[in-house]
Structure formats: C-alpha cells, structure tokens
Design goal:
alpha+beta, 5-stranded antiparallel beta sheet, 5-stranded mixed beta sheet, disordered N terminus
Length: 455
C-alpha cells in the first residue's frame, strides 16, 4: 500500500510537470511557428515580386506577349488602364480580373493573402500587385503563388513535434527520478513508523544525511516527539510499578493493625472471664488510631496525586511556624524567623507539611529541634533540623518513598504510617517548590524551598 501511494504521488507529480512542459512547448512552438511563417511569407513575397518585376519590365519595353510563363508561380494577370486582362499565364487565360482587393489606392506595390479566388477555389494565395505606369494610364500586374501554410512546412512541424516530445519525456524522467529520490527518506520514515507500530526496535526515525530540508526537519521533529513519547511511556511504566508497589505496601500496612486487632479480640474471647477488657479496649483503640492515620494519609495522598484544587492565599511562614511550634512537644523546639517571608499557598496544606516535618524530627531528635525561616533570593526557605543520628546520603531519597520506614525509624516509632514525608514532598511540589534533605553537621536537615510572594 505504501509503495503504491508513493508511486501514485510520483506519477501525479511527473504527469503534472509533463503537462506543464507540454503546454509550455505548445505556446513556444506557436510563437516560433508564427515567426517562421512570417519570415517565410516575406521570402516568398520577395520571390513573387521578382517574377512580377520581370513582367513589369516587359510592359515598360512594350514586349509583353499575350501569354507569359512563370517559374514556380500559380499564375500572372496583366490588366491595362481600363481594367482589361491583356496578358496572363496559360492557366488563367480567358478569366476575368481575379481580385480588386489590391492594390490599395495610392500604393504602387501591394501584397496580400487572399483565399477562395475564382481560379483557386478552396485554398489561399499570396498575391503581389504592381503598378506599371504607361502613357494611357496605370497598368496592374498580379502575381499569384501558394500562401505559406500555418505549419510552414511538414519538416518544421515534425521537428517541433519531436522537440516537444523529447522535452516532455525528459521532464517526465527527470521529475520522476527527483521525486523518487526525494520521497525515498519519506518511505524509510513510513517503514520505520510501521515497525515501531508493530513493536519492533527502538523508537527512532531515520534522519536523511547530507541534506537540510523539510524531510530532515520532519524526521528530527518526529524523533523529538518519539523521545517525549518514550519518556512518557517510561514514566507511565514507572508510575504503574510505583502504584503496584504502593498498593502492596498499603495492603500490608493496613493488614497489620487489622491483624493485631483480630488477634487481641480472639485472645480475649478464648478466656473471657480472665481477659482484661479495659486493656483489650485500649489496645484496640491504639490499633484503630493507627488504621485511621493510615487511611487519612492515603486519602490525602490521593487528593494530592489527583491535583485537587485548593485555596490559595498569602501565608506568612513566620506566623505559621510560630503557631505550629507553640504547641507542646517532647523535644525542645528553637525557632529563628526572618520577618516578612510570605508565600502564596494553602494554609492547611503548608501547616500539614510543617507538622509532618516536626513529627519526624521529634521522633529522631535527641533533645532539640531547630526551625529556621528566611528569604533567599526569590525563594522562601524553611529548615527543620534535629540533633539525632541523621540519615545516610544513600537513603535521603528513599525516605520520601511511600510506606518507606528505615530500620532506625521502625525501632523508634512502630506506629508511624510511612506516609508523612511523602505527603510533605507532594505538598511542596503542589506549591511549585522542593523538599530535600541537605548536609548538616549532626542530625537530619530538611529544607523546603517555595517561591516567595512578590507584592
């Protein structure tokens, strides 16, 4: 199908170019024929006039016989001043005057092409007329010769036909070859696209070499599109894999408190008289709290992933940090706040981000948490630093993965959901910022950067 379409396009272009060349040849040939015919007509008129001049000399010398002979003419008529035919060629003997169209008044010599004369029906004649002035008045000499046809001669017509046919054939061949070579890269691109569609090989198109034309730019643009498509497919595959892992981790973390509650209830039911139902109820409430926290965090992540719209308003980070750090915690919180650091965002989400960072720092700090707010260039910077053991550089991105809890975290807090830091990073991204872990002399240093509000 592709080959047939390629040949069809080449055929159409070659046919169009050949028709254009044929039309050009017809127009040029018409002008050439017109010029040649005029030139041939002038030459023939000169020859006919020479024959008529010979007869005129006979009239002047009073040597004109009743019958004259000619060489290559169709006939001659000589009329006296009264308009009587006094001499002619044998084929015109006895015929009256053949034309009065020429000579025109006040012209000694005249030339005209006349058709359907009485002596020459169905054809055109080149007629030359001359005046011979005699004592009794002006005599008129008519010389008749075949008119030059529109095609001049058969040889000229055949020559022009052959030239036109040759030029049309060369045009067909040349355009067909040029189009074929031009479309060859297109055929290669089409073939490669068909292979890509069938799932064969890498997603790249062949780029024509040693040329810089529209087809090369088409191939390069196609490769850029395929690169973006391939990157999107990789991201999609990674997202699918991440969702699969997320579903597995979520089911595992959800199953843990459910299993614990089931075990506690079953143990109490085995010995209802000896069971401490108050302690069992407290344990169940703890498991329910953990289950509720996981579900709440999952719903929050779902909204963030879906890009759910949130309110945007000016938020003073210093005021927000002061409010959140003013609540009692098990570790001492020290703040360093630069006034006037305002951002545009969702106050509740930013408060959730800060709370998650403080909760994480509180679980890992030894005694103190440092919170700093400052403006750096056009960004608002929020740092949360604890004095705990810190996080190894190789694990600094791992902790932002969902349901990821390092061994140290599991030992310190078995009730964590493993979603606090991922939620904090998603909130940062939703506000056009970043949340990273940077180097510090001691402990873990979480740094939030989001665009500052310009008044």
């Amino acid at each position: 199908m592709i080959r047939r379409l390629g040949r069809s396009l080449r055929l159409r272009l070659a046919l169009l170019a050949s028709l254009a060349m044929l039309l050009l040849n017809v127009v040029v040939s018409a002008f050439v024929l017109f010029a040649i015919r005029n030139e041939a007509g002038d030459i023939r008129a000169y020859d006919v006039a020479s024959q008529a001049l010979r007869v005129l000399l006979m009239v002047k010398r009073n040597q004109l016989p009743p019958t004259v002979t000619t060489d290559g003419l169709d006939g001659i008529q000589v009329l006296d001043s009264a308009g009587r035919v006094v001499s002619s060629t044998p084929n015109l003997a006895g015929l009256p005057r053949l034309t009065t169209v020429i000579p025109h008044r006040n012209t000694a010599n005249d030339v005209a092409e006349l058709c359907d004369l009485p002596a020459f029906p169905g054809r055109c004649e080149l007629v030359v007329s001359m005046h011979a002035y005699q004592p009794d008045g002006a005599w008129v000499i008519y010389a008749f010769a075949p008119a030059v046809p529109w095609y001049v001669s058969l040889k000229v017509l055949l020559f022009e036909i052959c030239v036109a046919a040759l030029l049309v054939a060369l045009t067909w061949f040349g355009v067909s070859r040029v189009v074929a070579r031009t479309l060859a890269p297109v055929h290669n691109i089409t073939k490669r696209l068909a292979e890509i569609t069938a799932g064969g090989g890498g997603m790249r198109l062949p780029v024509p070499q040693n040329v810089d034309d529209e087809i090369r730019r088409l191939a390069e643009t196609g490769n850029q599109m395929l690169e973006r498509l391939e990157a999107a497919m990789r991201k999609q595959a990674e997202a699918v894999e991440q969702q699969r892992r997320f579903a597995g981790d979520a089911s595992h973390d959800l199953r843990s408190p459910i299993t614990a509650m089931r075990t506690q209830v079953e143990d109490a039911l085995l010995n209802p008289e000896d069971a401490d139902w108050r302690a069992t109820g407290a344990a169940l409430l703890a498991s329910l709290d953990r289950l509720q926290a996981i579900v709440t965090d999952l719903l929050t992540l779902t909204k963030l992933d879906a890009g759910a719209p949130s309110s945007r308003e000016p938020v003073d980070l210093c005021e927000l940090v002061a409010a959140e750090t003013g609540r009692p915690r098990s570790k001492n919180v020290v703040t360093t706040l630069q006034p006037g650091v305002t951002v545009t965002g969702d106050r509740l989400q930013l408060a959730r981000l800060l709370t998650n960072l403080l909760d994480n720092a509180e679980r890992h700090a030894e005694s103190q948490i440092l919170v700093t707010v400052r403006r750096q260039d056009r960004q608002a910077v929020l740092e949360v630093l604890d004095d705990g053991a810190g996080i190894e550089p190789g694990h600094r991105e791992t902790v932002f993965q969902r349901f990821t809890r390092l061994d140290a975290s599991r030992n310190r807090d078995a009730g964590g959901t493993g979603l606090g830091l991922p939620i904090a990073r998603e909130i940062a991204h939703a506000h056009g910022g970043t949340l990273t872990i940077e180097d510090s002399e001691r402990g873990a240093r979480f740094v939030l950067r989001i665009p500052v509000r310009e008044d």
